[in-house]
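Exercise 7. Given the encoded structure of a 93-residue chain, write a plausible sequence.
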């Protein structure tokens, strides 16, 4: 069993925490449904222009787990042009 984690650091076009919450909830909900991953906002909850999102997947195959998170990152990049990915890291736990 292989467990992989993706940490995405995002720069958001939001002026308030309410706008940020809308963007983050949209990304998390759609990723949960499309890629069947566990996800949450894991850091910088009090800053309205940045977010750190964590995604986790489990698979019996190492390449499938890593590939899922790589596709997820590309999908976020393509699906939200107003959201900039400033950093990302995939780690095996």
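Solution.
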């Amino acid at each position: 069993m292989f467990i992989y984690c993706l940490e995405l650091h995002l720069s958001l076009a939001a002026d308030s925490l309410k706008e940020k919450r809308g963007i983050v909830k949209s990304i998390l909900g759609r990723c949960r449904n499309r890629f069947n991953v566990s996800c949450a906002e894991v850091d910088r909850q009090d800053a309205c222009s940045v977010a750190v999102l964590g995604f986790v997947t489990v698979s019996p195959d190492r390449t499938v787990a890593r590939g899922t998170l790589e596709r997820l990152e590309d999908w976020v990049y393509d699906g939200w042009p107003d959201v900039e990915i400033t950093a990302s890291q995939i780690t095996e736990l």
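Remark. The chain is about 40% helix and 40% strand. Students should compare their own answers with the one above.
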